[in-house]
Amino acid sequence: MYYCRMQDVGKAKADVAAARVMQRVKGVTVTPHFCKIEEKDISFFKDFQIIVLGLDSLEARSYINSVVCGFVEYEEDGSPDLSTIKPLVDGGTEGFKGHARVIIPGITPCFHCSLWLFPPQITFPLCTLAETPRSPAHCIEFAHLIQWGQDRTGETFDADNPEHMKWIYDQALKRGEQFNISGITYSLTQGVVKNIVPAIASTNAIIAATCVLETLKIATMCSTGMDIYMQYTGTEGIYLRTVPHDKDPNCIICSPGVPLEVDKSITLQKFIDTLFKDRRFKLKLSKPSVSYHGNNLYMQAPPVLEEMTRPNLQEPLVRLMGGEKSDVLNINDRRLSGVLRVRVTFRDDAETIDMDTVGTH
C-alpha cells in the first residue's frame, strides 16, 4: 500500500501507479493510459486475456461489460464459443464497504444482469432545495443546481475548478445561515457535488487482494474460483459473503439472443422500426445495421453499402432469413459497444412465403 507523496500531487494516478509498481516489481512492464476507457478503440481490449476493473462509475463498468460480452461468439445451439470469452474481474469500494465479482461472459451473469444490486443515485426534489432545505446537502445542491445558473448565466460549471467549487461552498454557507442549517464544510461540498465517498485504505487493500487472487485462479486454474459475487462490510467487525446470482436468459448484453416475436409479413424496415418502439432497445439504438449469418441485410454506412442493401428494407424479413421460424439477427449501432443479438421468432398464423424466390441483395 502506497501513500500519496507530495511530488505525486497533480499527476495522473495511472502514471504514478505504473511507475511505483515497476519500481517495486523488477522485470514487470506496466503501460499507463491516461484517458477515458470509452476513448479506446474496442480492438484495444481484444489484446487482453483477462480484464480486471477498478472503476468508479456504473457507466464505465457497463461499457466494459458490453465490450467483452460483444466479443463472445455463440454456437448454433446457443452455447458460447469458449475461445472467444474474456473473463472480467471487478472490484469496487465505498467507504467501509466493498465488493468483488467474477464475470465469465456468456456463462455467468454479466454486469447488466444484476444492475439491481446497485442502489439508485440520491437525488433531491427541486422544490425542497428551493423552498424547504433541511440539511447541508440541500444547501449545497441549491447553490450547485439552481443558484449557479441564476447568478453565472452561460458559464459552465466545472467541478474540478477550485474557484467554481469555492463559489458553491460560499453560497451554500450563506443559504445555511439563512435557514439556520449548520455543518456545511468545503470537503462536504466536494463530496455532494462530485459524489465523493471517502476511500478507506484497509477496504481498498482487501478488495484489491481479492481481485488479484481471483485473477490468479483464472490464469492458473490453481483453485476453484469465487461463486460469482463477494460482499465485504467492515463497519461492524468483518463480514464476508459470496453470493451466486442468476444469469438473465434474456439479457440484452450477454444472452445468445434477446427474444422478439414478429409477424411473418413484417419487412426489414418495419422490423427496424419495431426495435425503436421496444423499450428494451430504443435507448440503445440510433442508426442500426442488421446482419444475418454474416450477410449484410442492411448497412447504415458506408454510403455504397447503404445503397446496395437499401432494397432489402422492403423485403419480408422471413425471406431474408431463408424461411427460418426462429433465428438470431446481429444488430450493430454506433451507440452499442458490442453486437446486440436478437432472436427473432415468426408467428405461425401469418401468410407463408414462397421460398422459390428466397434471396438477399
UniProtKB/TrEMBL annotation:
EC identifiers of the protein: 6.2.1.64
Keyword entries, A-Z: ATP-binding, Ligase, Nucleotide-binding, Ubl conjugation pathway
Keyword Aminoacyl-tRNA synthetase: no
Active site per the UniProt annotation: 127 (glycyl thioester intermediate)
Every E2 binding domain range: 260-347
Pathway: Protein modification; protein neddylation
Catalytic activity: ATP + [NEDD8 protein] + [E1 NEDD8-activating enzyme]-L-cysteine = AMP + diphosphate + [E1 NEDD8-activating enzyme]-S-[NEDD8 protein]-yl-L-cysteine
Record's keyword annotation contains Repressor: no
Pfam families registered for this protein in UniProt: E2_bind (PF08825), ThiF (PF00899)
PANTHER family linked: NEDD8-ACTIVATING ENZYME E1 CATALYTIC SUBUNIT, UBIQUITIN-ACTIVATING ENZYME E1
Its biological purpose: Catalytic subunit of the dimeric E1 enzyme, which activates NEDD8.
Name of the molecule in the record: NEDD8-activating enzyme E1 catalytic subunit
Species in which this protein is naturally found: Sphagnum troendelagicum
